[in-house]
Amino acid sequence: MTQLREPQVDRALAREHGLTDAEWERILEILGRAPTFSELGIFSVMWSEHCSYKSSRVHLKTLPTTAARQPSEVIGTVLVGPGEGAGAVAIGDGLAVIFKIESHNHPSFIEPTQGAATGVGGILRDVFSMGARPIASLNSLRFGPLEDPKHRMLLRGVVHGIGGYGNSVGVATVGGETSFHECYRGNILVNAFNLGLVEADKIFLGQATGLGNPVIYAGSKTGRDGIHGASLLASAEFDDESSAKRPTVQVGDPFTEKCLIEACLAAMRTGVVVGIQDMGAAGLTCSSFEMASRAGTGIEMDLDRVPQRAANLSPYELLLSESQERMLLVTRAGEEQRVLDIFADWDLDAVVVGRVTSDGRMRVRWHGETVVDIPVDPVAANAPCYDRPRQVPADLGERQKLDLASLEPESDPAGALLALLDSPNLASKAWIWRQYDSFVQGNTVIGPGGDAALVRVKREDGTPTRKALALSVDCNPRWCWLDPHAGTVAAVAEAARNVACTGARPLALTNCLNFGNPEKPEIMWEFAESVRGLGDAAAALGTPVVSGNVSFYNETSGRAIFPTPTVAMVGLLDDFQRHAVSHFAESGLAVVLLGETREELGGSEWLALRRDLEAGLPPAVDLAHEKRLHGLLADTIAAGLVRSAHDVGSGGLAVALAECGFTGPADLRIGCRVALADAIRADALLFGESTGRVVVATADADALLARAAAAGVPARAIGATGGDRLVIGPAGGAAWIDVELATLQATFARGIPRRLESA
Amino acid sequence: MFAVIQFPGSNDDRDMCFAVKSALGAEVALVWHKRGELPPGTRAVLLPGGFSYGDYLRCGAMARFSPVMAAVKRFADAGGPVLGTCNGFQVLCESGLLPGALLRNQALDFVCDPEQRVRVEQAAAPFTSRARPGQVLRIPIKHGEGRYVAEPAELARLDAAGQIVLRYCDAAGETTPDANPNGSVGNVAGVRNAAGNVMGLMPHPEHAAEEGLPGGCDGLVILGSLVDWLERAR
């Protein structure tokens, strides 16, 4: 028999595992003895920032996580809120959507292709482990400047990773966002979103119920990859030595994942599965503890039965490995063979590794020896929780200072427009999304490149419905740096507005909060402000927060990223054939601007690009106006009154009008002629980023203006579609901008590729 | 009845079933790759797209050894129509049922384009009878390894024998280099065997089979031709 040789477990070793002295004392108190080496490993991952949310929980519990109380058949009812693998929301017809966004930032910086690929794999498992078929993915990516060859490499690697995994598993990547900023030079962000579809009464939870029920391990074999990915990689800052942590990055196998999706969905259809959970961060440990904790049970497990791909794995390694594509299932006792047979048919390993017990303890054996014997709840449900000190950043006043009066006006509006369209943040992202399968499963109504993606709802048995889901992921990190509360409110408002531009009504949201080191009071203040903004906006728009993820320690050598609270909004459209596109679809339509343009240039792309200045207050958000605007869009698009709707976002009205002209099908290019009468400075009119604005095209401007007036939404007819030029000027004066659409389109299209080719 | 073969890693299998059933009203069955025989009543076989066996060795190289492929080969040898799309095309080339091979795209990147055009070079039963010669179809593509290659002599022979069925082209029907998404020799997008009953193509007709979705309906020209042929042969 192999002898277990393990290091001496003491306070010093606990520190090496990222545990504080107070946490070490707490472990001694819980156990009444010193932990074994395996137990120490378990505490260190379960109490890591990544798994326990110990710095964020006090703030997250303030978020609105349910819609108004209503029965489960009512659209918008939250069926499963935060705490499970992903959130679930009813969409009517007995169906529900399950969705979540999650970060894979640190692994992607160390090894971009595998880091991004396993990010996609992990979020898919969170969704299908609840019984849903994953139908659509989004991603939100942040890199350093493309002038840096390392970041060109990272961009290529991440895109290959997302595409390589998502394409192979057969889940459409229907949209996303990508931006570039100096603050991500030492710490890129890769946030992956997935949404799945499930029958509302067939949602599975990660719970180990039923005394004596078998615990089944299914999927890939366990290896040494990814040990301490969650505790050491994701829960600490980067430094120059971080590349030495490459072995903590996992390797993805999308083929196994695809087989796992089909096998798990088939297993769940048998009716004998009582609980199921993905082995994600902290692997076998986290999944078994969470499943037992939720059910109020215990588990006894025999590690020798775990399928292993390397020889002589220690219990510590078996418990902490983050090998990918693995699931833990609990079935009804005596009926497990039906499930095991399904996995065998898909040539996947599936083994009974343990049983559910009633004493609330986790007992793990290895070679006949008990290596873990600890109570479940103190580890899983009662992890440490900190209300960390917060402090307003010393330079916040400096950041927010902007004197518009002394700001030199734009002297070359057409040149500014071309420069904006060429800039990596605003340029076409087609180079990225052409590498993603955006239409597998045959439901994509609007793919990448629009304001929001639109995905038709088709039942698992292949019966199509009229309904569609609108999806958008958004955040303006610069605004969040200037004012984390206002910036986060704006992110929620923009995501909802993008969804509304398709004609859908915003339903619920998920979020991925990417921040620096929470032990620094200024970062913690940013975080708390951001969560407050998220809650305020979610409550005002009636879009509950149903799932989410926090990623701290996004710093390298002490320099934090901008606060980046990525918001992904899901909306519902009753009839997918009655939707609006974001581009002008016809000539001769009236162009109407919904919402008000104010003299706001703070935090704008124009200010950063043309004045090299990142300062001021972000534009104000009027959430009551937003809600009225979203309702007006849904009503007028459903009525066929609005043909196209495009959010006015980064780069302002000039960029939005240009995009309306050329972001449709390749052979469609429609210009417009627009006159603006507002009495504010022209550059704010053209490039200011006032929120709550949408450019729409309609055949009946009078009817639309009347509807807008009735809804209390400011609206003005500003021009007409047609021609092959974009012409914008003051009412009755010489044009500020008069450029051929083809020129604008070429600049927009080449922005990213030309920078990549310069390598 | 149409038999859609499901390999581990197939991911357009359900979409193919949906297109054949709802757009064309034909009967269809999903057939697991471990079956040694095609279901009774099978009149046409469809090999769908995806990443069979993860494409880990070479696209289609593992799937050709799946038990069901022996049955598919017997079916094809007996004159039964077999259509492979994307990964299905790769499986047919690896199995020797179609000439040539499919390599990594010239630009090395996966390419997804819902607006890809192909020109119909041969308008004939059983796969393209609904088309006019020279007709331009808009059928989506999505693949990383779709660059069709064959020896020059073989290619000339295929051309002369009318075995090149589809070529990538622009909206005007010109087979320009710019319209070639993957570097295929001669812009070849689809070929058939000498007997004419086995065809492979990289574009996805099953994703151009529904009004109201951006893929359009041109894929029904191909799938519908097969339905017509089965009707006539009845």
List low-confidence stretches of chain B.
none
CATH fold label of chain B: Rossmann fold
Overall 3D form of chain A: globular
Instruction: Please list the strands of the largest sheet of chain A in the order they lie side by side.
Output: 8-10-7-11-9-12-13
Strand order, sheet with most strands of chain B: 2-1-3-4-13-12-11-7-8
Query: At CATH's second level, what is the architecture of chain B?
Result: 3-Layer(aba) Sandwich
Estimate the global geometry of chain B from the Cα principal axes.
globular
Percent strand of chain A: 15-25%
**What's the end-to-end separation of chain A, in Å?**
56 Å
Q: Describe the largest sheet of chain A.
A: 7 strands, mixed
Q: What's the assembly state of these chains? A: heterodimer
Helix content of chain A: 25-40%
Structure description:
- The complex is a heterodimer of chains A (759) and B (234).
- Chain A is an alpha+beta fold and 759 residues long.
- Chain A has 26 helices and 28 strands.
- Chain A has a seven-stranded mixed sheet with strand order 8-10-7-11-9-12-13. A seven-stranded mixed sheet of chain A has the order 23-25-22-26-24-27-28, with helices on both faces. A six-stranded mixed sheet of chain A has the order 1-2-3-6-4-5.
- In chain A, α7 runs parallel beside α10, α16 crosses α26 and α19 packs parallel to α20 (521-541).
- The longest helix of chain A is centred in the N-terminal third of the chain and has 21 residues, at 149-169.
- The model of chain A has no long low-confidence stretch (mean pLDDT 94).
- Chain B is 23% helix and 22% strand.
- Chain B has one domain: Rossmann fold (3-Layer(aba) Sandwich), CATH 3.40.50.880.
- Chain B is α/β, with parallel strands linked by helices and 234 residues long.
- In chain B, β3 (44-47), α2 (67-77) and β4 form a beta-alpha-beta unit.
- Chain B has a nine-stranded mixed sheet with strand order 2-1-3-4-13-12-11-7-8, sandwiched between helices. A two-stranded antiparallel sheet of chain B has the order 5-10. A two-stranded antiparallel ribbon of chain B has the order 6-9.
- Chain B is globular and about 45 Å long.
- Chain B is built from five helices and 13 strands.
- Chain A binds chain B through residues 160, 163-164, 167-170, 253-256, 258-259, 345-347, 433-447, 456, 458, 462, 464, 576-577, 665-667, and chain B through 8-9, 11-12, 14-15, 17-19, 21-22, 32, 34, 50-51, 53-56, 109-115, 140, 142, 144, 171, 206-207, 209-210, 212-215.
